[in-house]
From TrEMBL:
Listed Pfam families: MFS_1
Gene3D superfamilies: MFS general substrate transporter like domains
Lineage: Eukaryota, Fungi, Dikarya, Ascomycota, Pezizomycotina
Domain Major facilitator superfamily (MFS) profile: 63-486
UniProt-recorded name of the protein: Major facilitator superfamily (MFS) profile domain-containing protein
């Protein structure tokens, strides 16, 4: 089928199945050879109890909560550090900008970590990735807590980020293993909200830990949460179909069962899906290129909040670290509002159109982003010019809510659009390019944002971000009009 003729025949709940691990959507390659034919090894029947889709609801809920908890902890670890920056400056006798390096390098690590998730998940299964990456993440967090100089803190935080990275993306694959497309909307939407909710909670935890126990307790608190997730994850069972069927075939002593994806095959897939193809798509596909930069810019601005806004609020209102931490809860509130809006649009718009017309064109997925593209620059101008002592603090905090809501709506909308446009085969590559650039910009923005705020002041510094957002805001509208033409010309 040509790209030009592609349409979507499902609702939002079926579209988050193709992340870096391809969401278990690739038909299993495990085979069993009979005397006449080679047939795919599949479930014993629709009621097969080994099929995660047939597990009891409590069991599926447990296997949803653990990846979500892991993702929250790994994203909490990013911004829990920011309230400790001033203490790091004092402890290690470094500048504020240098003290932000452990924060930036952790985000940088999050960008590299997901590249490892795909081949490991396809070869060893979801469970092994969780039970390997989280403990290693915890060990490097322990190293960060014991660091005696800024260099060791930067290095340990970077590697902690690398091993936290798989947990930020692999959960969507697990959820796709557990739920039918019609049942995925709620758990998947809430899981996708973790990159927004985790960092929103973290500054509050970090502030009270730093004020009462010292900066090292931002790391100890992260370590305690990681240890709790590890213990809770131990009873997990494998959810990936290929791995389950391969292991079951071996238990049944079926010598003709294919061993599944080998390490060499997984590495080849890694080179193609995680490196070569994403780069090619980023350079040759306008849809991927513009979407990639738009989402990455929004994500970078989100992490700029954590680096710069504590200084802004402390200077304007005399807030302490704890009070600043409380204001970041507004980002979590915005993400929750966005989740409710997305679910409502799915239920009352997307599903209705699918039921009435049998399909929905990819461009209609951009409704959410078209609305949100206006919210981001408005919220940034709002924050920049009201975060001052003569205006009540609730005004910039409400601007944070609007910013977070719009940011998540744009992210979710474009994930849907890319999924509809490129299908199961190429969505993973498109999202890999997106994820990597997202974390690269997220790591670099905090390193220079303080210079901007100190140089030109809160109003104009935030306005620079607002103008950047305004410059990118036509993208969903352009795709809505010219998207069919671009899809028709696509090589993918």
């Amino acid at each position: 089928m040509s790209v030009k003729s592609k349409t979507s025949t499902s609702s939002i709940s079926s579209k988050f199945t193709h992340d870096l691990e391809r969401g278990g959507s690739i038909p299993t390659q495990v085979t069993i050879e009979s005397e006449k034919t080679v047939q795919p090894l599949d479930w014993d029947g629709p009621q097969d109890q080994d099929n995660p889709l047939n597990w009891p609801s409590w069991k599926r809920t447990y296997h949803t909560l653990i990846p979500s908890a892991a993702a929250v902890v790994c994203t909490i670890a990013s911004s829990i550090y920011t309230p400790a920056v001033d203490s790091i400056v004092t402890s290690f006798s470094v500048s504020q900008e240098v003290a932000l390096l452990p924060f930036a390098f952790y985000i940088l690590g999050l960008g590299f970590g997901p590249l490892l998730a795909a081949p490991c998940s396809e070869t060893y299964g979801r469970r092994m990735v969780y039970l390997t990456s989280i403990p290693i993440f915890a060990l490097f967090t322990l190293g960060a807590a014991l660091s005696q100089d800024i260099a060791s803190l930067v290095i340990t935080r970077f590697f902690a980020g690398i091993f936290a990275g798989p947990n930020v993306v692999i959960g969507s694959a697990t959820i796709a293993d557990l739920y039918k497309p019609s049942d995925r909307a709620f758990p998947m939407t809430l899981y996708i909200a973790t990159p927004f909710c985790g960092p929103a909670i973290a500054p509050l935890i970090g502030a009270y830990a730093t004020d009462n126990l010292g900066w090292r307790w931002t790391m100890w608190a992260t370590l305690i949460m990681a240890a709790a997730v590890i213990l809770l994850a131990l009873p997990m069972r494998e959810t990936y179909k290929t791995v389950i069927l391969t292991r079951r075939a071996k238990q049944r002593n079926d010598r003709r069962a294919d061993p599944g994806t080998t390490v060499v095959e997984a590495f080849r897939s890694f080179i193609t899906t995680s490196l070569k193809r994403p780069v090619h798509m980023a350079c040759t596909e306008p849809i991927v290129t513009l979407t990639m930069f738009y989402i990455a810019l929004n994500f970078a601005m989100l992490y700029s909040f954590f680096a710069a806004f504590p200084e802004v609020l402390m200077q304007a209102y005399g807030f302490g670290q704890g009070q600043v931490g409380l204001t970041f809860l507004a980002i979590g509130v915005g993400a929750l509002i966005a989740s409710l809006i997305i679910l409502a649009i799915d239920h009352y718009v997307f599903r209705v159109e699918v039921q009435e017309k049998g399909q929905i064109t990819p461009e209609k997925r951009l409704y959410i982003a078209m609305i949100a593209s206006c919210l981001l620059p408005i919220s940034l101008f709002w924050f920049g010019w009201t975060a001052r002592s003569d205006i009540h603090w609730i005004s910039p905090v409400l601007a944070e809510v609007v910013f977070s809501c719009g940011n998540m709506m744009i992210f979710m909308s474009f994930v849907l659009y890319l999924s509809d446009t490129y299908g199961a085969r190429y969505t993973a590559s498109a999202m890999t390019a997106n994820t990597f650039l997202r974390y690269m910009l997220g790591a670099t923005f905090p390193l220079w944002i303080l210079y901007l705020y100190k140089g030109v002041g809160t109003g104009w510094a935030t306005s620079v971000l607002a103008f950047l957002s305004l410059l990118m805001s036509p993208i969903p509208w352009v795709f809505y009009v010219w998207g069919p033409t671009l899809r028709a010309r696509s090589k993918y």
